[in-house]
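Weekly modeling sync, notes
Attendees: S.R. (lead), two postdocs, one rotation student

Agenda item 3: backlog of single-chain predictions. S.R. asked that every request posted to the team notebook include the full sequence so nobody has to chase files. The rotation student volunteered to paste the first one in as an example of the format we agreed on. Action items at the bottom.

Example entry:
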Amino acid sequence: VQLQASGGGLVQAGDSLRLSCAASGRPFSWSTMSWFRQAPGKEREFVAATRDRNGGIFYADSVKGRFTISRDNAKNTVDLQMNSLKPEDTAVYYCAASQNRLVAYTVQSNYIDWGQGTLVTVSS
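Predicted structure, as returned to the notebook:
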C-alpha cells in the first residue's frame, strides 16, 4: 500500500497551489480520503476530507472557502486545491486514506494509510 503526495512548494501569500495524492496497492477503493497538515512546532491537524458515494466533503474552519478537495475514484487519487494561501498555511501536508466511511474523519488514528508528506511554504 502506498500513498504518494506531490505538488508542494514555495509560494507567496495570495497564490494558489494544487496538491495531489495517488493511492496504489489495494484491490479496492478507499472510502474516506483526507488531507492533514503539520506546521512547524505544532501538532498535525485535519484539513479536509471526502467520503465516496456522495458521503460528503468536510473542511477545517481555517481553510473553508479557500481550499477544495476532490477525488477521482477510478484513479484512486485525491487532490487539494489551495487558493488565497496565507503564511499560516505553511506546513507539511499529508494525505490519508481509509477503506471505511469514517464518521470521525478528523481523528488521525482512524487512518491506516498515510502519504509521506509534501512541504508547502507560504511567504508573506
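Discussion: group reviewed the output briefly. The longest strand covers residues 17-24.
Action items: rotation student to repeat for the remaining queue; S.R. to check formatting next week.
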